[in-house]
Amino acid sequence: MGYTILLAMLVVFVSRMVWADDVTPIPEDKPGVTQWFNTNVAPLSARKGTLDPALEAAEASPRTITVNPKGGEFKTLTEALKSVPAGNTKRVIIKMAPGEYREKVTIDKDKPFITLLGQRNAMPIISFDGTAAKYGTVDSATLIILSDYFMAVNIVVRNTAPMPDGKTKGAQALSMRISGNKAAFYRCRFYGFQDTVCDDTGNHFFKSCYIEGTFDFIFGSGTSLYLKTRLHVVGNGIRVIAAHAGKSADERSGYAFVHCKITGTGGGIYLGRAWMSHPKVVYAYTKMTSVVNPTGWHENKLPAHDKTVFYGEYKCFGPGSHQAKRVPFTQDIDTTEAKRFLSLGYIQGSKWLLPPPTL
Predict the structure, then answer these.
(1) DSSP per-residue codes, 283-347
(2) Looking at the DSSP assignment, which residues form a beta bridge with residue 184?
(3) Where are the domains of the chain?
(4) Any idea what DSSP says for residue 193?
(5) d(CA 1, CA 54)
(6) Judging by beta carbons within 10 Å of its beta carbon (0-12, 13-18, 19+), is residue 331 exposed, middle or buried?
C-alpha cells in the first residue's frame, strides 16, 4: 500500500513538473532567454520519463550518417534519406558537409525522427527553383517535411526561382513546407519571395533563425513559436509577413513571434493579413524597425473579418512598434493574455522539444 501511494505521489510530482515547464514564460529581458531555454529545454538525460515515449525510445540509440556532394557515404541528401527505412523508430542524424545541394527534397511521413545537421560556420545550402506553376503552391518547396519529430540545425534552404513580377501566373515559390508535428529549427536560414515558409500544420519551434521574403512569406495553419528569429522583408509594393490560415474560433493554431526582429528595405511592411477568417498572430518583445507600416496590419478584404482576426502586440519596441495609427482590430493584449503565447505550453513543447545535438 505504501509503495502504491509513493508511486502515485511521484506521478503527480512529475506531471506538475512538466506542467510548470509548460507555463514558465519567456522572460522580457533578452539575456534571460538563454537561461530560460537551457532550463526548460534541457537535454534528454535530464528529462527521462517526461517526454513522449516514442521520442525517448528513438533518442536512446541514435544513428549518424554523412552526406557530402564531393563524395562520401552519400553524395545527395535524397540518397541519404532513402537509406532510412519506412517506419523508422530511431533518431537518424544526417551530417551535411558544407556545399550546395541542388535538389528538391521530401521527407516522407513514414520517416520520423530525422535531423539535418550542418556546420554553424559553413552551413550547407539546399536549393531548387520549383514554382507553383509547375508543382502547385505547397508542393513547390525546396524542402518538404511530412514526418514528425523533425529537427534542422545550421541549414540554409533556398528557392532560387525569380521574384514574382505580379503578372506571371503561378510564380509563388516556397523555400520550405513543414507539415509534420513536433518539429524544431535551430539557426536555420530560409530564402524566398512570395510564400517562403509554409508553416502548414502541427507544433513547431524556430530559434535564432532567419526568414526572408516579400508577400505572405510565413503562411499556413501551424501552431508555432518563433524565438529570436529575424524576419527580413525584401522587394517592393505590398509586403506582408504572416498569413496565418485560421478558419474558426475553436482552432488552437497560431503564430507567436517572441524576441524577434523585423528588418527590410523600403517601408510599408505589414505584420500580417487575414488570408482566412480567423488568423491568430502575436508579436511580443519584438524589435520593429521603421520598415513596418504605421497601421501594422493589412486591411481586411472582408469587413466581417475585423471581428474574427486575433492580432496581438505585446511590449514590442522600435520605431515601427508605435500603436497610435494601428488598425482598430489590433488586439491590445495584457500580461495575462500574453502569457499563453510566451511558454512551451503554446506548442506543447515540454513533451517533445529537445536542444540541438552536439556532435
Answers:
(1) EES-EE-TTB-TT-SPPPSSGGGGGT-EEEEES-BSGGG--TT--TTEE---HHHHHTTSSGGGG
(2) 151, 205
(3) 2-47+101-162+170-351
(4) S
(5) 31
(6) middle
Query: Which residue out of 21, 195, 199, 200 is catalytically annotated?
Result: 195
Full-model pTM: 0.93
**Does the annotation count 195 as an active-site position?**
yes
Place domain 2-47+101-162+170-351 in its CATH homologous superfamily. Single-stranded right-handed beta-helix, Pectin lyase-like (2.160.20.10)
pLDDT at 270 over 50: yes
Query: For the segment 117-161, what is each residue's pLDDT rounded down to a tens digit?
Result: 999 999 999 999 999 999 999 999 999 999 999 999 999 999 999
What is the CB-side half-sphere exposure of residue 269 using CA atoms within 13 A? Answer: 28
In residues, how long is the chain?
359
pLDDT at 235: 93
Does the annotation mark 216 as catalytic?
yes
In this structure, which amino acid lies at residue 320?
G
Residue type, 263: T
Residue 228, C-alpha cell as written in the block: 529570436
How many Å apart are CA 348 and CA 19, to the nearest integer?
10
Residue 266 main-chain phi, psi, to 5 deg: 70, -150
3-state helix, strand, coil in the chain (%, to 5): 20, 30, 50
pLDDT tens digits, one per residue of 40-90: 999 999 999 999 999 999 999 999 999 999 988 999 999 999 999 999 999
CA distance 122 to 299: 41
How far from 277 is each of 197, 242, 306, CA to CA, in Å? 20, 14, 9
With beta carbons less than 8 A apart as the criterion, state whether 294 and 327 touch: no
Q: Which amino acid is at 199?
A: D
Cα 322 versus chain centre, distance: 26
pLDDT at residue number 21: 60
CA dihedral of residues 287, 289, 294, 300 (deg, nearest 10): -70
